[in-house]
Amino acid sequence: MSPARISPRRRPGLFRLSALASGAALVSAGAASGAERITGSVGGYMYIGAGVTDASISGDTELVLIRDGEIHLKARGSSDSGLNFAVQVEVEAFTSALDQIDENWARVDGAFGEVWVGGADTALNEYGQVGIVFATGPYNYYDADIFVAPGGVGMVGKDDALSIRYGLPENRYGIRAGVSYQPDATADGLGDTARSLPRAGAGPLRADHQVAVGASWRSPTPYHGFGLSVGGGYLNSDGPAGTEMMHAGAEITYTTGEDLVTLAGFWNRRDGRGRTDHVGLGAMYQFDAWKIGGGVMTANGTADALHATFGGTYLLAPGVDVSAAVEYGEADLSLVGEGYAVLTSLNIRF
């Protein structure tokens, strides 16, 4: 008879050993009571819309349908030593010519701060981007879906190439800061890779050794209803497509009762194959379930451009809002020169 089939009654020593092991396991479980098993969840959004625009190659006013969405696969957990673990993979709702997977990363955070490895925004964008506020969606995001050509005013330091990023721990002073490094800043979209290393000289679009820093401060408590946020950052990369980017921005808020007024402004500089300065001003008023506002952004330098928008958003239900906006854009390097767009949209987040 094998030891595995001997009953505890015939092996009293084994019974006592099993009981001792069980007790030790209970003590261990009690010591690890602060830990949380890794659990998964699914989230994401679906954005649909329709509008009209004359920003078409023909120059005629055309009906435009818009669709954008992502499925977010998430996992979260923690250890009893105070470490938190997170994983997120963002799958595009449809296959495009450039991308199927958006951000994809793993994060470990604790009292020391947070460390990210994977495809995620640079530290400039994550920690330093301040001063970009609009009522109908993130700046330079949905507007690109309806504007076929005009625009040309964009955020800096926003790409999802394989990188490592460190951020300071949360603190009561309202300070966020961090640094990131991307060996190959062009390894995104169809250039995704499981292993990233500098490949300078491998092509005219290469940007290697990309380093970015970003920092921001938000007033922890309002002063007579007023709040202030300031931020900025710097990015530099080598290679044939190496570039230098800078950002500075500020937001002023005023809260009265349940209403919130926000004034924002920013300055960006892109300096690579030509220099372009971006300047933007925006304002937003939030009350009840409404957000109303707009802004103007300009680009001056190698490529001049202007982009203006005004609109509003209404919260229909938790996670569901409807928006309407009027936009105008012009750009020197655009095939159509200038154009307008009128947009209505529905955004469902889950």
TrEMBL record:
Q: What keyword terms does UniProt attach to this protein?
A: Signal
What are the recorded GO MF terms, alphabetically?
A: porin activity
- Taxonomically, the superkingdom here is Bacteria
GO cellular component terms, semicolon-separated = membrane
Cleavable signal peptide:
1-31
Name of the protein described by the UniProt record: Porin
Q: What organism is recorded for this protein?
A: Albimonas donghaensis
Kindly list the organism's lineage.
Bacteria, Pseudomonadati, Pseudomonadota, Alphaproteobacteria, Rhodobacterales
